[in-house]
Amino acid sequence: MSNICFIGAGNMAQSIIGGLLKSGSRKESIWATARSEDKRTNLADNFGVNTTDNNVAAVEACRIIILAVKPQMMFGVCEEIAPYIQGKLVISVAAGISCESLEKWLGKNAAIVRCMPNTPSLIGQGACGLYANANTNTLQKQAAQAILEATGKAVWVDDEALMHTVTAVSGSGPAYFFLFLEAMTQAAVEQGLDQHTAQSLAIQTAKGAALLAEQSDDNLETLRKKVTSPGGTTEQAILSFEHSGLRGTINKAMAACAERSKVMAEELS
Questions:
Q1: What are the domain boundaries of the chain?
Q2: Buried-most residue among 13, 95, 120, 171 (CB within 10 A)?
Q3: What is catalyzed by this enzyme (predicted)?
């Protein structure tokens, strides 16, 4: 794989760097930029990669550029590196910044891949949506997928508008499950379990259910029904969820998330 440079070195950049190194990338082929000397020192100590505070120097040394700065900083960074990206692949992990905006700032011929990773990427269990603009060729798409798969699962969408839905499903999704686990734990404590036992059981149950869903040939509905014996305990819980309108609540929450993503995209453009 070509040399890769990360503009910005926050948690998401570090998780991708860590994943790349674990999957066999050479540390000498990775560059990372950061304004903070302490952060550059930590990157060098923890990963052994090249570090600099000079974005242009890093971009000139690499064929793949990953923009991992905050959305509010993106315009300034793009303006700085735009003259140096001809023929290179630019991958943006910034939420809400459209390819149209990036093309405006980097140049209309720029090869751009947008991605929406999530926080489980930090432990190699991420879920990431990808979208490529028309300037991105097949080899560049393959390179982008290989980079993001170093931190988990990466899937493509063929319509950039669907990145708002990706945000609602996987980008923001971990927080939904954390909330559900909080509620389960609290309910179990109120029924008599201690906090540690309740939380451990809830987390392991979620982990086991997710792994079973991933590995089973059954679809989600079938898996649910296999646990839900007629007249049994699980059925009573499921009926309570259904009567409380859980599906509608989830639908509204994800719609609100996607709508906020659209508004942010307009504000940041």
A1: 4-163, 173-265
A2: 171
A3: L-proline + NAD(+) = (S)-1-pyrroline-5-carboxylate + NADH + 2 H(+); L-proline + NADP(+) = (S)-1-pyrroline-5-carboxylate + NADPH + 2 H(+)
- 231 annotated as ligand-binding: no
CATH number for region 4-163: 3.40.50.720
Strand order from edge to edge, sheet including 126-132 = 50-52, 30-33, 4-7, 64-67, 89-92, 111-116, 126-132, 152-156
**What is the tens place of the pLDDT at every residue in 26-60?**
999 999 999 889 989 999 999 999 999 999 999 99
What's the predicted TM-score (pTM) here?
A: 0.89
Q: How far apart are CA 225 and CA 245, in angstroms?
A: 18
Query: What tens digit of pLDDT does each residue of 95-110 get?
Result: 889 999 999 999 999 9
CATH of 173-265, one of 3.40.630.30, 1.10.3730.10, 3.10.450.50, 2.60.200.30: 1.10.3730.10
The answer to whether residues 255 and 86 touch, using CB atoms and an 8 Å cutoff, is no
Asked if residue 109 belongs to a known ligand binding site, the reply is: no
Q: Does the annotation place 262 within a ligand binding site?
A: no
For residue 9, say whether it is annotated as part of any ligand binding site.
Answer: yes
